[in-house]
């Protein structure tokens, strides 16, 4: 992994090698940290790096922090400012991934959330493709269940909760699949290990509601807007049954890392014709242009470094 030379740690930019926490740190011992995942896209013609929807990402991060009873003086604007400072320090001129984290920084044991010190840190890495077959993924339905809002909130990006995602992903990949859909405790498909799900049925785009134990994805929100406003599609947020994905016309996954990943097979059954569908293809092209700052109408989604 190509990591940044510098990181933001304990209030300032330092060499990455100096950004270290103790083995006695609460966030490490109990997974009491919340994180974000943003991407920056290099536009070669314009010689500029664009960060995608940082305001929305930091807003979600601050919401996750609030759920974990964290306190911070940072707001969306100050987090964007320090992101730009960090990116300029290493002068990134390629696609990148940003990982900001708030964590419980006290040393020692004691399982609780209140009365602890919260710290913020962030590092950058060069982007590496996340899903291998992003144009024709083969997905299974996981035997694991999605964490429930009354267990650990899936709408927060809580570090410890990603053990659930890791179990889902590892078993899927070891069984020969690219990804897995995971069911919530009601038996509805919630999402993938780290991406939201969309299906097309009878020409309507359908995705689970935010009350079905999903992460409220920024890519999901962007795709809903593009499908409605640019493709004139009807978009419905409703629960998805397990067998609906077998008979969907198109299926795709969305995420900052996964972008728009076409799913062409589910548990050995072809989706539609077994190749990427036209709606998925159009959304992918449009989305790619927006990310690289090539679409004027949506340039407000990007912040230039
Ligand atoms: N669900 C989960 C569990 C995730 O970790 C992610 C990645 N952040 C997503 C969905 C997609 O969200 P976004 O589009 O904001 O990256």
Q: First CA to last CA: what distance?
A: 23 Å
Can you name the CATH architecture of the largest domain?
Alpha-Beta Barrel
| Low-pLDDT windows of residues | none
Helix content: 25-40%
Helix count equals 7
**Count of separate structural domains:** 2
Q: What's the CATH topology name of the largest domain?
A: D-amino Acid Aminotransferase, Chain A, domain 2
Q: Which series of helices and strands comes N to C? A: EEHEEEHHEEEHEEEEHEHEEEHE
The level-1 CATH class of the largest domain:
Alpha Beta
Rg on CA atoms, Å = 19 Å
Largest sheet: 9 strands, mixed
The coarse overall form would be globular
Q: Going by CATH, what is the homologous superfamily of the largest domain?
A: D-amino Acid Aminotransferase, subunit A, domain 2
Strand content: 25-35%
Describe this structure in words.
- The protein is α+β, with helices and mostly antiparallel strands.
- The chain folds into two domains: 121 residues, 2-Layer Sandwich (D-amino Acid Aminotransferase, Chain A, domain 1), CATH 3.30.470; 155 residues, D-amino Acid Aminotransferase, Chain A, domain 2 (Alpha-Beta Barrel).
- The chain contains seven helices and 17 strands.
- Strands 8, 9, 10, 11, 12, 13, 14, 15 and 16 form a nine-stranded mixed beta sheet that branches. Strands 1, 2, 3, 4, 5, 6, 7 and 17 form an eight-stranded antiparallel beta sheet that branches.
- Helix 2 packs across helix 3.
- The chain is globular.
- The mean pLDDT is 96.
- The chain binds 4'-deoxy-4'-aminopyridoxal-5'-phosphate (PMP).
- 4'-deoxy-4'-aminopyridoxal-5'-phosphate (PMP) binds next to helix 5 and strand 14.
């Amino acid at each position: 992994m190509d990591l940044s030379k510098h990181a933001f740690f304990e209030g300032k930019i330092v060499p990455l090698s100096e950004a270290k926490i103790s083995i006695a740190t609460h966030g490490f011992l109990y997974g009491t940290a919340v994180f974000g995942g943003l991407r920056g896209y290099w536009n070669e013609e314009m010689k500029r790096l664009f960060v995608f929807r940082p305001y929305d990402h930091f807003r979600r991060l601050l919401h996750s922090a609030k759920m974990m009873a964290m306190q911070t003086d940072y707001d969306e604007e100050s987090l964007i400012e320090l992101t730009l400072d960090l990116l300029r320090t290493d002068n990134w001129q390629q696609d990148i991934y940003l990982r900001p984290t708030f964590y419980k920084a006290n040393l020692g044991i004691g399982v609780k959330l209140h009365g602890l010190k919260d710290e913020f840190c962030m590092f950058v890495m060069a982007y590496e493709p996340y899903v291998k077959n992003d144009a024709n993924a083969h997905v299974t339905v996981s035997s694991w269940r999605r964490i429930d809002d009354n267990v650990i909130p899936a709408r927060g990006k809580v570090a410890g909760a990603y053990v659930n995602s890791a179990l889902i992903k590892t078993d899927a990949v070891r069984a020969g699949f690219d990804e897995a859909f995971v069911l919530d405790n009601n038996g509805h498909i919630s999402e993938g290990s780290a991406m939201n799900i969309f299906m097309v049925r009878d020409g309507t785009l359908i995705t689970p509601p935010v009350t079905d134990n999903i992460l409220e994805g920024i890519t999901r929100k962007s795709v809903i807007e593009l499908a409605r406003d640019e493709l004139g599609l009807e978009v419905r947020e409703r629960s998805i049954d397990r067998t609906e994905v077998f008979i969907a016309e198109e299926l795709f996954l969305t995420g900052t890392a996964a972008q728009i990943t076409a799913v062409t097979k589910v548990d050995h059954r072809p989706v539609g014709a077994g190749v990427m569908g036209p709606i998925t293809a159009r959304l992918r092209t449009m989305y790619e242009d927006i990310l690289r700052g090539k679409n004027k109408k949506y340039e407000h989604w990007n912040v230039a470094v």
